[in-house]
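Example S7 (structure tokens).
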């Protein structure tokens, strides 16, 4: 470990348990907030905010609003990245979590189209953009808290804890939707794939309002953190950049591009396995665009079962990436995703057992590809621009992968006359792009996150102290 800068006090260290809990709980809350919207986008928003459209158009409109948040995420990455690289990780994480919590709570009190017309839809879009903006700053900060405080040889393992927030948030969010559906069942003889009248009137709001409780817990946990020792040393050495965005674009453009495409298959796979699959699984077999015909409760329980494998293999991926390297692990996993896309439709065609196997395999691959990203993306960038660089790569990839994935999948589903084989080919094609990026990149396992970078007078975006000045 580098020697302390002369004249400075020893840097306080976060206990390992606090690091893991803080990085996990924040992303769990953020992903919970994000995915309850994804569930509502399929289940109730087409009827509540786009009632004048036919069912397919309403669903696509709801997905379009869902995707709009992805556009806001890179903006959030730039803004929160600037704050995180200038002022520190802890303060920025608190602000991002609070922003997400307020936006999610407000969705729970929005008027519907029947009550306020287009104003209701516009407010929904605005809150969704705020969610995306907040998530754009959350992930990279949580990943940095975990990896910058990790012991030697366990950085990828520590990096899986913020990643674990994705499956946990999904399980909590959808579990709460299931609970509300059980408490507010449809009338006898009603379509079991459709929510009850009470659920449409007020039941859907409960998961959004409940986020306030979770955010309060998350803020308390994060308030007990001390600043990252790596960032503290960089700041003490005068390595804080006045314009982190300019520095990372000018000096680390290749890493930005590689990081963006390394994340691509992960995003496409996840949003196909969650958002699209929920639409496909619930669509009736005799619909204009046939689906699997499962009731909402049945299919969500199947999804949650699959997500358990997502959580388990997210943790498994950390030791694998620490032992064999991030690049090597991800090359093999991404190649498996290519194959998975090719066997997508045949698996589903085997009936319920095949559908369960499809979900288990998809979410297992999701855990194996998502877990190492918590270490790999931060390792691509030096301390002074790590928040900005990792955040931009992660969130620009969300536009290329997540924002359009459900929308494209629905269009391909229709083009295939109800068969998902074109959707599988789309996943394989995106995975090939990720595989190319991995082959062009380098292994980052032995990269030091404590780079001791100092100011350079000839740097146009030269460093400043965290309190300002140039």
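Recovered sequence:
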């Amino acid at each position: 470990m580098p020697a302390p800068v002369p004249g400075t006090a020893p840097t306080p260290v976060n206990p390992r348990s606090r690091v893991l809990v803080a990085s996990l709980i924040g992303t769990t809350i953020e992903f919970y907030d994000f995915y309850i919207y994804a569930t509502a986008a399929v289940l109730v928003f087409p009827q509540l905010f786009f009632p004048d459209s036919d069912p397919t158009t309403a669903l696509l409109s709801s997905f379009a609003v869902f995707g709009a948040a992805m556009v806001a995420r890179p903006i959030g990455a730039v803004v929160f990245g600037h704050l995180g690289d200038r002022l520190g990780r802890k303060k920025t994480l608190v602000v991002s979590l609070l922003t997400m919590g307020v936006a999610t709570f407000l969705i729970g009190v929005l008027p519907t189209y029947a009550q306020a017309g287009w104003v209701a839809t516009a407010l929904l879009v605005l809150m969704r953009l705020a969610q995306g903006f907040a998530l754009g700053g959350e992930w990279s900060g949580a990943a940095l808290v975990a990896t910058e405080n990790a012991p030697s040889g366990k950085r990828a393992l520590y990096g899986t804890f913020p990643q674990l927030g994705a499956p946990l948030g999904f399980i909590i969010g959808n579990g709460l939707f299931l609970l509300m559906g059980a408490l507010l069942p449809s009338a006898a003889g009603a379509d079991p794939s459709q929510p009850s009248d009470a659920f449409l009137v007020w039941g859907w709001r409960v998961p959004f309002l409940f986020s306030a409780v979770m955010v309060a817990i998350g803020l308390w946990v994060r308030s007990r953190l001390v600043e990252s020792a790596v960032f503290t040393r960089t700041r003490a050495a005068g390595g804080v950049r006045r314009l982190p965005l300019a520095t990372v674009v000018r000096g680390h453009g290749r890493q930005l591009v590689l990081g963006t495409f390394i994340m691509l298959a992960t995003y496409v796979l996840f949003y196909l396995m969650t958002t699209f699959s929920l639409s496909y699984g619930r669509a009736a077999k005799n619909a204009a665009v046939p689906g699997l015909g499962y009731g909402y409760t049945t299919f969500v329980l199947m999804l949650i079962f699959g997500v358990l494998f997502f959580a388990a293999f997210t943790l498994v991926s950390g030791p694998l990436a620490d032992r064999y390297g991030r690049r090597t692990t991800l090359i093999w996993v991404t190649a498996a995703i290519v194959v998975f896309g090719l066997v997508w439709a045949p698996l589903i065609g085997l009936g319920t057992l095949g559908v369960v196997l499809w979900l288990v395999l998809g979410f297992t691959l999701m855990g194996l590809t998502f877990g190492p990203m918590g270490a790999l993306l931060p390792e691509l960038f030096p301390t002074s621009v790590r928040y900005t660089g990792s955040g931009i790569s992660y969130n620009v990839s969300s536009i290329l992968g997540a924002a359009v994935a459900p929308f494209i999948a629905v269009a391909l589903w229709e083009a295939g006359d109800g068969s998902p084989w074109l959707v599988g080919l789309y996943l394989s094609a995106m995975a090939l792009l990720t595989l190319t990026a991995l082959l062009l990149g380098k292994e980052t396992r032995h990269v030091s996150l404590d780079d001791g970078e100092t100011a350079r007078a000839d740097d146009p975006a030269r460093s400043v102290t965290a309190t300002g000045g140039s």
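Notes on this example. The radius of gyration is 22 Å.
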